[in-house]
Amino acid sequence: MRVISGIAKGKRLMAPKGLETRPTTDRVKESIFSMINNYIIESNVLDLFSGTGSLGIEAISRGANYGYFVDNNKNSIKVINENIKTTGFEEKSEVLWSDTLNVIKQLGENGKKINIIFMDPPYLKDLIVPCIEAIDSERLLDEEGIIVVEHDIKDNIPAEIGSLKKIKEKKYGNTRISIYTEEA
Known about the structure:
The structure is a single chain. The protein has helices at 26-40, 54-61, 74-87, 100-109, 128-137, and strands at residues 44-48, 66-71, 93-97, 114-119, 141-152, 160-161, 164-172, 175-182. By secondary structure, it is of the alpha/beta class. It has a single domain (26-182), classed as Vaccinia Virus protein VP39 (Rossmann fold). α4 runs parallel beside α5. The protein is globular, with a radius of gyration of 15 Å. It starts with 25 loop residues before the first helix and ends with a strand.
């Protein structure tokens, strides 16, 4: 696993040992960033269920201003911190060892506005809809921002969740990428 493009291009990223984390493959990551390229420059990103930090780090490498990395697994937090150090993005990053819904609430209460929210939760655990509902109710997403969800093709998520609407979807083997934004 590596950073694909930008100022940290080619840097190798670590992954936690064991089967608790399922890092995004380089092929899927490249496809995601091709779809969202116009949103990245000077954005603030939130990498939920971060695992390795790969998606948020890739965004910073490609020109995002700042990234929040959230995971509730101690081993993942160590790996995320190491990957941020490897890429030299310590000044552009904040790593939060916490429950995802708590962080969404905390950031919303602090008036943060996020341009790109990455979600790669454990597959088939019904975590996607509650997180998107919380993002919507906390008004965390910038008005022109997007939520990028990586999920199993069997995960059944609706086309509309609150004021957010699915605008794009692509399938890669057993993985599906769904992109949401506020309805116009």
